[in-house]
């Protein structure tokens, strides 16, 4: 059936600035219609923030738009082209099952991409059917909204509609389409695509567009080019983003270069998950057989991805390639210190520490060399350590305090989120950890460090409450919600979303959601389809 233009007044204010880029970067296409669309879930509070009418979005005409059966007046949908290093291998990619309807201008003046995910085949589908299953789309809805509640930059989900059609994966599954909202869908892979298959002018057009869309308020240093400033700003945003991931135990699962945005938002909630028991080697993705994207590797992978962005930008950084490489290397060299500063500041906050320890306090707080470090003497490692960062031997007192706790959590398989939650509540941590002499010693050192601050104990606890979530989207809770939703019970998912919306509330209602997984879920695996 043909796709119609709809004039329903929902509140959309459409623009098409991405479509002004060279045609290399996209293909115009209308969505592939579906048989019998029905609205499954609508993010009403977010719709209102976008300046859209929730009641209007529930209308039959609006649902037809969210399903791709009708195209809003004033839009000309497109599939974006990009490339990407997937598990280290470079491929030519693109939106194989998604279409950008256009950009919506919010009442606050934000320009946001509105994308339909699961809207049918495109020229970039590479043999796929272009569709999505209901379970994975609901999973993205839940996790992206949880990330928003945690205060982590992320794409968001406006709605999920069912299509009335079944799609074939390993079995037949009900089809669905997610409406995803993003600051933009410009990726590291978009720049790689321009560098590999476009001209320097195509690359320049993309860089100029990205700068104006995301960084136009950044002041250039004297003599600094816009393109170096762009690279530096992306490095800075990604350093902050990855630190936020590490601080809450989030594992993206598929940190390919096509899944790293220039805006600094988290994108693509496929095989992602939140860590239960603390272990830097944790991997949930079924396809990550070598642990490339393990929790502890995420900072290093982020830097690797940013190096691919820098490579793509070389022609714009300097006309002489050797000079361009030096400029890029100097920019990339900022990432480790930026990441470490964000991570260390966040970890201090998780322990109620407002400022770094003074040099005079180092001997008192640092304590003796840990038993683990003694055992590792002469066997120094270069792989990521407990916090997902490659340490040198010169940690300040607070970093040593944090590192020792993480080492103890790892050794005793302590739950990452709950350890910090219980410390915040001033309650005993798990017995397997609390009853060790090493933990008792660590706890004494921590209390001594807290006593050195000018801030009161209540101020420290308040800092901890605002830094340590009481709840995360536990894998078993997400699966429970998806199973119930697939059976027609929306209540389980709605209750979970309510709890995840305010993860730092420490409310009574959250307590039942703080428990770790049952034994049957301890070997949990995620899949790209999810």
Quick take:
This protein has helices at residues 44-49, 54-57, 60-66, 134-149, 188-197, 200-214, 226-248, 298-317, 321-332, 334-350, 362-366, 371-376, 397-411, 416-424, 431-434, 437-451, 457-465, 475-486, 491-500, and strands spanning 4-6, 14-15, 26-28, 38-42, 70-72, 78-80, 83-86, 89-92, 98-105, 111-117, 132-133, 156-168, 172-182, 250-251, 273-274.
Instruction: Give the CA-CA distance, first to last residue.
Output: 29 Å
Shape: globular
Structural class: alpha+beta
Average pLDDT over all residues: 91
The count of β-strands is: 15
- Taking pLDDT < 50 over at least 5 consecutive residues as the criterion, the unreliable ranges are 368-386, 389-393
Measured by DSSP, the beta-strand proportion falls in: 5-15%
Radius of gyration: 24 Å
Treating each run of at least 4 consecutive H or I residues as one helix, how many helices?
19
Q: What's the story with the biggest beta sheet?
A: 7 strands, antiparallel
Instruction: Determine the fraction of residues in helical runs and give it as a percent range.
Output: 40-55%
Your description of this structure?
- The protein contains 19 helices and 15 strands.
- The chain has 530 residues and is an alpha+beta fold.
- Strands 2, 4, 9, 10, 11, 12 and 13 form a 7-stranded antiparallel beta sheet that branches.
- Strand 7 (83-86) and strand 8 (89-92) form a beta hairpin.
- The longest helix has 23 residues, at 226-248.
- It is globular, with a radius of gyration of 24 Å.
Task: Give the topology, please.
Layout: E1 4-6, E2 14-15, E3 26-28, E4 38-42, H1 44-49, H2 54-57, H3 60-66, E5 70-72, E6 78-80, E7 83-86, E8 89-92, E9 98-105, E10 111-117, E11 132-133, H4 134-149, E12 156-168, E13 172-182, H5 188-197, H6 200-214, H7 226-248, E14 250-251, E15 273-274, H8 298-317, H9 321-332, H10 334-350, H11 362-366, H12 371-376, H13 397-411, H14 416-424, H15 431-434, H16 437-451, H17 457-465, H18 475-486, H19 491-500
Parallel strand pairs: 1-5
Antiparallel strand pairs: 2-9, 3-6, 4-12, 7-8, 9-10, 10-13, 11-13, 12-13, 14-15
Helix pairs in contact: 4-18, 4-19, 5-6, 5-8, 6-8, 7-8, 7-9, 7-10, 8-9, 13-16, 18-19
């Amino acid at each position: 059936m043909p796709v119609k233009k709809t004039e329903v007044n929902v509140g959309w204010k459409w623009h098409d600035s991405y479509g002004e880029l060279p045609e290399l970067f996209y293909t115009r296409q209308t969505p592939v219609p579906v048989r019998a669309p029905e609205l499954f879930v609508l993010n009403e509070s977010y719709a209102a923030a976008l300046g859209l009418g929730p009641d209007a979005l529930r209308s039959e005409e609006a649902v037809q738009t969210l399903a791709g059966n009708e195209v809003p007046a004033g839009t000309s949908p497109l599939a974006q082209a990009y490339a990407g290093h997937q598990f280290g291998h470079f491929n030519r990619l693109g939106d194989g099952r998604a279409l950008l309807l256009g950009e919506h201008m919010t009442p606050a003046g934000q320009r946001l991409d509105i994308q339909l995910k699961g809207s049918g085949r495109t020229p970039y589908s590479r043999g796929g059917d272009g569709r999505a299953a209901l379970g994975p789309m609901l999973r993205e809805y839940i996790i992206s909204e949880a990330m928003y509640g945690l205060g982590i930059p992320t794409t968001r989900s406006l709605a999920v509609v069912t299509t009335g059609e079944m799609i074939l994966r390993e079995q037949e599954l009900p089809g669905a389409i997610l409406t995803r909202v993003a600051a933009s869908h410009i990726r590291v892979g978009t720049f790689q695509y321009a560098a590999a298959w476009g001209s320097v002018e195509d690359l320049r057009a993309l860089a100029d567009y990205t700068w104006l869309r995301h960084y136009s308020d950044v002041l250039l240093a004297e003599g600094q080019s816009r393109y170096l400033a762009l690279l530096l700003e992306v490095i800075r945003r990604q350093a902050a983003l990855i630190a936020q991931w590490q601080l809450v135990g989030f594992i993206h699962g598929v940190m390919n270069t096509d899944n790293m945005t220039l805006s600094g938002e988290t994108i693509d909630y496929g095989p992602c998950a939140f860590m239960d028991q603390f272990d830097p080697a944790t991997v949930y993705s079924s396809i990550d057989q070598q642990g490339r994207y393990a929790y502890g590797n995420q900072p290093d992978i982020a830097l690797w991805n940013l190096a691919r962005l820098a490579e793509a930008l070389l022609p714009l950084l300097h006309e002489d390639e050797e000079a361009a490489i030096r400029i890029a290397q100097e920019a990339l060299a900022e990432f480790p210190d930026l990441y470490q500063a964000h991570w260390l500041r966040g970890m201090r906050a998780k322990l109620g520490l407002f400022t770094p320890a003074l040099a005079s306090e180092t001997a008192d707080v640092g304590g003796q060399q840990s038993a683990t470090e003694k055992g590792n003497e002469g066997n120094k490692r270069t792989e990521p350590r407990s916090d997902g960062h490659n340490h040198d031997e010169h940690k300040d007192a607070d970093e040593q305090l944090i590192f020792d706790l993480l080492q103890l959590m790892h050794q005793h398989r302590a739950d990452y989120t709950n350890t910090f939650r219980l410390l915040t509540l001033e309650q005993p941590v798990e017995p397997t950890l609390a009853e060790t002499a090493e933990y008792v010693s660590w706890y004494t050192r921590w209390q001594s460090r807290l006593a050195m601050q000018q801030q009161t104990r209540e101020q420290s606890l308040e800092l901890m409450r605002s830094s340590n979530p009481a709840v995360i989207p536990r894998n078993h809770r997400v699966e429970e919600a998806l199973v119930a939703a697939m059976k027609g019970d929306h209540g389980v998912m709605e209750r979970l979303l309510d709890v995840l919306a305010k993860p730092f509330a420490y409310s009574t209602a959250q307590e039942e959601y703080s428990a770790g997984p049952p034994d049957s879920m301890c070997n949990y695996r995620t899949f790209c389809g999810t």
